[in-house]
Design goal:
The protein is α+β, with helices and mostly antiparallel strands. It is 40% helix and 24% strand. Bound molecules: magnesium ion. The site of magnesium ion has 6 residues, from helix 5.
Length: 393
């Protein structure tokens, strides 16, 4: 019985060729990310995976197969000057239905374990910036944007010997083992990868979703993903988050044998990430509404400040700034009280002023009052003249 799996590799949106290579057959799972120029990278990853699968099929162990793959890539690079210096990352896992999985890693492709809603990074990158992180010189966040983040400290096929990191995990029912090239992790955070796995989609859809998402975020590199899982309902063995760093494959290198307890990427971070995005969206919405609201208030304020009307203020005719009745919270206010008394107004003019007579400026409003006053004076003169004529007659 083999493990269930799905694989996917994509050129991305920037590169012209895919120098990644993937392999999975239910027992062996591999991701390789080639390097070494236009021709070399693709050749290195293909030769490495081809040799690896061939050696495993012949019954060799994974460490033996990796050593053979290293030799094959290295010798090929010596044979062809165009391929000089080529190499590849390699993350390989070998497992069976018991769920026991051995994982070997060289370079900055990664292996993750998704278990019970939490994502664990199993491998550690062999990069210059990872060494800076390990020494405490920079943070993981700074490493993610560091200019030298692509500089590898270990690769397969660049020397006669290669020293992979080795781990062993117990895959339980429902767990997912994820192998990927840096084209995925440079575009998606661990939290975003965890969010996709949390959806519980069929493995092929999960692979597609991850690759699509990485492309949506830029697709600046080739993107490769391999997923492996036990069949649902497999009893497995009691869950353990202890990953064993296995003996190094090279006898020249002293063993750094140790067990390390993996620090999970808590689902709360996944939830917090969603929560943060929702909050950010709400913040943008509020900001847009705020700017729009401020623009409306400013426009109304300008309109009100350039509006005047003539109206009544107690026993006097007055000039107001603003609009009759007010707009929003901008209420009209008296800017000038004239000498014209309201008891001198004709009923018609008085009625006009009760409703307010709009004018464009204080000067125009004063002209209106002056004309009204003049009309009253003329009317009064005419009345007096009529009285005098009547007396004379
Ligand atoms: Mg890459």
């Amino acid at each position: 019985m083999t493990l269930g799996y799905a694989v996917g590799t994509d050129v991305g949106r920037v590169r012209s060729d895919n120098q990644d290579a993937v392999f999975a057959d239910g027992t062996l799972f591999v991701v390789a990310d080639g390097m070494g120029g236009h021709a070399g990278g693709g050749v290195a990853s293909q030769v490495a995976i081809g040799t690896l699968a061939d050696e495993i099929s012949k019954g060799h162990s994974l460490p033996e197969a990796i050593a053979a793959a290293n030799a094959a890539v290295y010798e090929r690079s010596l044979e062809d000057s165009l391929l000089e210096g080529m190499g590849t990352t390699l993350t390989a896992a070998c497992g069976n239905e018991s769920g026991r999985v051995g994982i070997y890693n060289i370079g900055d492709s990664r292996a993750y374990l998704y278990s019970k809603g939490q994502l664990y990074q199993l491998t550690s990158d062999h990069t210059f910036v990872q060494e800076l992180v390990d020494s405490g010189s920079i943070t993981k966040e700074q490493a993610a944007i560091h200019r030298a983040r692509h500089v590898l400290t270990r690769a397969l096929g660049i020397a006669e010997l290669v020293v992979p990191d080795a781990f062993e995990i117990q895959l339980n029912g429902g767990d997912i083992l994820l192998l990927c090239s840096d084209g995925l992790i440079n575009e998606l955070s661990d939290e975003e990868i965890g969010q996709v796995l949390t959806l519980g989609l069929p493995l092929p859809e999960t692979v597609s979703r991850l690759i699509d998402l990485a492309n949506a975020h830029g697709g600046n590199d080739n993107i490769s993903v391999v997923l492996a899982t036990l069949d649902d309902g497999h009893p497995g063995t009691p869950e353990s988050l202890v990953v064993t760093r296995m003996a190094q494959s090279s006898p020249q290198v002293p063993l750094r044998g140790m067990n390390r307890i993996l620090q999970p990427i808590p689902t709360s971070m996944v939830e917090r990430s969603s929560w943060k995005r929702a909050l950010a969206r709400f913040g943008i919405f509020v900001a847009v509404i705020g700017v729009f609201g401020a623009a409306v208030v400013l426009a109304v304020s300008l309109y009100v400040n350039h509006s005047y009307y003539v109206g009544l203020a107690g026993a006097r005719v007055a000039i107001y700034q603003g609009r009759v009745g007010g707009i929003l919270w901008f209420q009209p206010h008296v800017v000038r009280v004239t000498s014209l008394r309201t008891d001198r107004l004709s009923p018609a003019v008085r009625s006009q002023l009760v409703s307010g007579v709009d004018e464009g400026s204080v000067a125009q409003a004063l002209r209106f009052v002056a004309n009204a006053t003049k009309q009253i004076e003329l009317s009064r003169s005419a009345t007096l003249a009529g009285v005098i004529v009547s007396v004379v007659v």
